[in-house]
Specification:
Order of helices and strands: HEEEEEEEEE
Distance between the termini: 52 Å
Structural class: alpha+beta
Number of domains: 1
CATH superfamily: Galactose-binding domain-like
Mean pLDDT: 88
Oligomer: single chain
Helix content: 10-25%
Number of strands: 9
CATH class: Mainly Beta
Radius of gyration: 19 Å
Shape: globular
Length: 162
């Protein structure tokens, strides 16, 4: 009787530990974008670019107009990037297209992800490359289509020094 109870308990414990490990792996690195230098195609009133990396999802960068618009983060050094998370600031909801580029020390940019979907205010858009991208100093997010002005509550770039 004890063996029958122990086996399901062991399996449940193994699944819980696997879930915990998988979740912690997503953020084993640090948000290297927090407080970094930021530039943008434009900004509107108090919606300055630095608001997108201040760690406060209640503030935002706002381009002050519809697409196209972009925001570029200078991480200050080259990192191995394993995840990017964008927190949407958008009213009204609707279809959007965002191109995410990684740039190297010599400012050579490569398109790494196209996020094309219906988005709503407060939504998190995340992607993780199949393997960490090394030597990334710059991250640029270019919005080419949106029913609203271009704005981000927060941009997180998770990585480690190479």
């Amino acid at each position: 009787m004890k063996a029958r109870v122990a086996a399901p308990l062991f399996i449940a414990t193994a699944f819980m530990l696997a879930a915990i490990f998988a979740t912690s792996r997503l953020h084993a690195s640090a948000n290297v974008a927090r407080g970094c230098r930021v530039t943008a195609s434009s900004s509107y009133e108090t919606g300055v670019p630095s608001n997108a990396v201040d760690g406060d999802a209640t503030t935002q960068w706002n381009a002050g107009h519809h697409p196209p618009a972009w925001i570029e983060l200078d991480l200050g050094a080259a990192y191995s990037i394993d995840q990017v998370t964008l927190i949407v600031e958008q009213t009204p909801a609707g279809p959007t297209v965002h191109n995410v580029y990684f740039g190297t020390l010599d400012r050579s940019f490569t398109l790494v992800e196209v996020l094309s979907q219906r988005t709503v205010d407060g939504q998190e858009l995340s992607f993780a490359p199949n393997s960490a991208r090394h030597g990334v100093r710059y991250v640029k997010v270019e919005t080419t289509s949106s029913p609203s002005w271009v704005a981000w509550n927060e941009i997180e770039v998770w990585g480690t020094p190479p």
